[in-house]
Amino acid sequence: MVATTSLPESSIFDQSLTGVKIMWGLHHPYQTIIGKSVESQVLWKSVKCVLWFPDFEIYGYGKNLEGQRSFVKNFFEYLAIRLLGDELSEVPLILTMNNLRFSQLQVEKLGRSSFFFLSGSFPFDEQSFGKLSDAIPTKNPMVVSKPISYVFRIYPPADVASDDFQAEIQKCLSDVQ
User: Fold this and answer.
1) What SS3 state is found at 12?
2) Could you tell me what percent of the chain has a pLDDT over 90?
3) Cα(134)–Cα(131) distance, rounded to whole angstroms?
4) Residue 136: left (phi > 0), alpha (psi -120 to 50), or beta?
5) CA quadruple 2, 92, 155, 28: dihedral positive or negative?
6) Angle at CA 107, nearest 5°, toward 21 and 26?
7) C-alpha–C-alpha distance, residues 87 and 91, integer Å
8) What's the pLDDT at 113?
9) Would you say 29 and 52 are in contact if contact means Cβ atoms under 8 Å apart?
10) Residue 75 needs a FRET pair 20 to 30 A away by CA distance; which of 88, 153, 162, 169 works?
11) The organism sits in which domain of life (predicted)?
12) pTM (2 d.p.)
């Protein structure tokens, strides 16, 4: 298992994390997804599932909805390039965030613009996995604010010749790296 964090190295020590490769000091998802440095590179061919818990406060977006929307859109774009470039379309993305924020940001629409389609969702179990920092207070008692895990799958475009498409994506990846 590989975990990334924006925290500085050695700021967390938990014996239950043995066997987990922690990549420290990565402040933006692109540093992991399309990383240039050796320290931030993931062996993508061995990845079976991507879990993402975006923390908009850490990245400085706070209440800036346009910034949050752009951040999520960029994440989908970078991950699409990586998964399509490495022919990993079977790898699901599980995005966990507050249900109200998911709706406000129109995350499903942002995902579709990068070939990601919502295939399911389920409540995030805070009892088992800890409290999610993404909370949105609500004034309306009829509106429930809670963390949800959303499962996305990528479906490559069918109208593009696969060899040409694959070569173009690989070129983009090598240009960045």
Assistant:
1) coil
2) 33
3) 9
4) beta
5) negative
6) 25
7) 9
8) 95
9) yes
10) 162
11) Eukaryota
12) 0.82
Side chain identity, residue 97: M
Regarding beta strands 147-154 and 116-123, do their DSSP bridges make them parallel or antiparallel, or are they unpaired? antiparallel
Question: For strand 147-154 and strand 93-98, is the pairing parallel, antiparallel, or unpaired?
Answer: antiparallel
Q: Is 130 within 8 Å of 71 (Cβ atoms)? A: no
Q: Which two tokens stand for residue 155?
A: 């479906």
CA nearest to 148, candidates 170, 129, 124, 118: 124
Which of 160, 33, 161 has the alpha carbon at shortest distance from 86?
33
Exposure string over 58-85, b if 16+ CB within 10 A, otherwise e: eeebeeeeeebbebbbbbbbbbbbbbbb
Strand partners, 154: 116
**pLDDT, average across residues 102-106:** 95
Q: What is the DSSP letter of 24?
A: -
